[in-house]
Amino acid sequence: METIVPGIRYPTYVNDYLYACSHEDRRESNNYLHLGGKEREEKMAAIMRRTADRLAAQLGYQNPDDILRPLEDVIELFKGPAAETPILVLGGGPFTEMVRLLAETKLAPLAIVAMARTWYADVNIFINNYNDLMDLDAAMKIEELVKMRAIPTWFFPTECAKAKVKGDEVLRACPWDFTTEELIKIFETAGDIESYEQAAAFTRETMTLAKMHMFDVLTVVPLTLPLSLPSRRAVSYWDHVGGQLALRIKEAADGPVNIFYPDENTMEEFKGIVMEEIAHVLSPIN
């Protein structure tokens, strides 16, 4: 299989890589934003390493390498000693690396859960869901692989975490598109308001969204609260919109791919419990 290279790599377009860094580290990073190329990479990597050391100690690992590995090492691990290990694969970015992991090993995860796809493309800034857009070839290839290996797969689409708004008018509601007050309540319950302040600052700096959305954390909530969000079997297909290639979905009679559906009434019913679950997930490790 040819290597698929996304047009944009995650750390280059948003500074979420500073999440969980201390305020001191974050302030230090601001001094390096004007740098470019390898010099900036080395400065930022040093900050990330300090954070990884701290988190590894909190988690009880001897060193960050136990939880932070290059993709090539992970592939070798699942080719050999961990080949038969039952695992759950979570995805929060382009499918580039996940495609490589499955294509270069015989790994058949218990399930794959990732934020991707969209039932209503009009809630996205771009024509495609952003995680799909970052590598459209890989976004379609992952579906081929899970079908070949019959891997249960769930995709969490944009509209399950983001309402459609035009000006002050809500065109399509989303109960899990939390208000600023609700977000603060979640992080206060988690006992980690500092992380909220960091994430809110990231959102302001990127200037792509009006406020924070809990995309990645919400992706896994329906696994722990299966009644909170219905899903439908679906299949992806290619389309063209305004002369651009678009990845679209439609319901299917069978197959391993399930896509969560933003049922407003169900989401509203479980909203309080979902907020508590998110707070639990975000609680600092003591």
Distance between the termini: 44 Å
The name of the CATH architecture of the largest domain is Alpha-Beta Complex
Please provide the count of β strands.
8
Q: List unreliable stretches of 5+ residues.
A: 1-13
What is the top-level CATH class of the largest domain? Alpha Beta
CATH topology of the largest domain: Inosine-uridine Nucleoside N-ribohydrolase, Chain A
The main sheet comes to: 6 strands, mixed
Strand-and-helix sequence, N→C?
A: HHHHEHEHHEEEHHHEEEHH
* Number of discrete helical segments: 12
Domain unit count: 2
Proportion of beta-strand residues: 15-25%
Helical amount: 40-55%
Cross-sheet strand order for the largest sheet: 1-2-3-8-6-7
User: What would CATH call the homologous superfamily of the largest domain?
Assistant: Ribonucleoside hydrolase-like
Backbone structural class: alpha/beta
Summed over residues and divided by their number, the pLDDT gives a mean of: 85
What is Rg?
19 Å
Taken from the alpha-carbon principal axes, the silhouette is globular
Describe this structure in words.
The protein is an alpha/beta fold and 286 residues long. The chain folds into two domains: 68 residues, no CATH class; 198 residues, Ribonucleoside hydrolase-like (Inosine-uridine Nucleoside N-ribohydrolase, Chain A), CATH 3.90.245. 43% of the residues lie in helices and 15% in strands. The chain contains twelve helices and eight strands. The strands form two sheets. Strands 1-2-3-8-6-7 form a six-stranded mixed β-sheet. Strands 4-5 form a two-stranded antiparallel ribbon. Strand 6 and strand 7 form a beta hairpin. The longest helix has 23 residues. 25% of the residues are buried. The N terminus is likely disordered.
